[in-house]
Task: inverse folding
């Protein structure tokens, strides 16, 4: 499970704070699943996580200038991919399909960590360069 480290900082306080919250929500969800909560409760945790992901991506996207930020297309595509994967998984859960929640959370945790350490750093540099 990914936890916050200083090298994850993108140098934008609001984004860093949201990243910490995002990682906390993933670990809260993992803890709930490990504790064996009912499927309905696990789905509630996941819904909360998905809602926060959408809100967080909107914050980052509001900082991007499509004409000036060189990683705009890639960054938007990664956000879209993550949102779709999360919403598809949530839908499968809500439809009562057989899903592997621990595997999904491990994947999501790694995805978020890689994204923060990679693509989000390019946004931090872009925003720093503007000021
Ligand atoms: Fe991002």
Result:
């Amino acid at each position: 499970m990914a936890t916050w480290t200083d090298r994850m900082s993108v140098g934008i306080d609001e984004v860093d704070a949201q990243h910490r919250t995002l990682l906390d929500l993933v670990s809260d969800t993992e803890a709930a699943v490990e504790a064996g909560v009912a499927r309905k409760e696990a789905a509630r945790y996941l819904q909360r996580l998905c809602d926060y992901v959408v809100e967080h991506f909107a914050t980052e996207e509001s900082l991007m200038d499509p004409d000036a930020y060189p990683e705009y297309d890639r960054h938007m595509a990664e956000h879209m991919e993550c949102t779709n994967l999360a919403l598809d998984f949530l839908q499968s859960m809500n439809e009562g399909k057989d899903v592997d929640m621990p595997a999904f959370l491990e994947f999501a945790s790694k995805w978020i960590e890689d994204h923060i350490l990679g693509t989000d750093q390019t946004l931090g540099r872009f925003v720093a360069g503007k000021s």
Summary: The chain has one domain: 18-130. The chain has a mean pLDDT of 95. The pocket of fe (ii) ion is lined by residues 60, 75, 79, 115, 119-120 (CB under 6 Å). The radius of gyration is 15 Å.
